[in-house]
Amino acid sequence: MEDAGKGRTTKQWWIGTPVLAAYSWWATALQPFTAPALVVTLATGLAVMVAGSCMRQRRGRPATLRPAESVWSAGLAAWGILLIGLAVWELAAFLQLPRSEHPTLSSLANSVFDSHPVRTLAFGAWVAAGFGIARR
Amino acid sequence: MAGYLLIAVACLAMEVAGRLSRRFPAMGDAVAIFSRFRFGRPLMLAAWLWAGWHFFVRANWV
Fold this sequence. Notes:
Radius of gyration of chain A: 19 Å
Distance between the termini of chain A: 24 Å
Helix content of chain A: over 70%
Strand content of chain A: under 5%
Number of helices of chain B: 3
Largest sheet of chain B: none
Order of helices and strands of chain B: HHH
Order of helices and strands of chain A: HHHHH
Number of strands of chain B: 0
Structural class of chain A: mainly alpha
Radius of gyration of chain B: 15 Å
Largest sheet of chain A: none
Number of domains of chain B: 1
Shape of chain B: flat
Oligomer: heterodimer
Distance between the termini of chain B: 23 Å
């Protein structure tokens, strides 16, 4: 029974990865600031959220906490501090010029996303991250 | 730029610590706990959707 489930997951992975790569390549070839780019990105987002939510309902939410969770408060605080630190740094960079000396995440992404393969990878990672959040 | 690098290194170190030890949460664990709050999951999904719109629709990479 468990082997069948594992085999199905492997099969889904082998089929899903090339399909996602091809879709990401196509989606990131669209010109930004256009209606097709907007529609494709939003439709992808909605589809990912619906698929993740369906999987979540099928699996059910975890009823119990992992045993180590009670000793995680310091670690969770560390993640929170890191997130706040990122937000503060981003805001500080945003309020300062020139942009070349004070880059924001957006300006860094713009320079890196000049390459289509990098954009494709980023889009695939974005889809995977959204699916991961939606199915929790 | 140095700040982003520092944050990225810290993030990576914490993720590795979370994967190697059960005494420290990995990013996925932190996300899972945050998603148990009433507005945690919708907030994260909204932020995720906004990020997609910002980086793939409102981008200046052309």
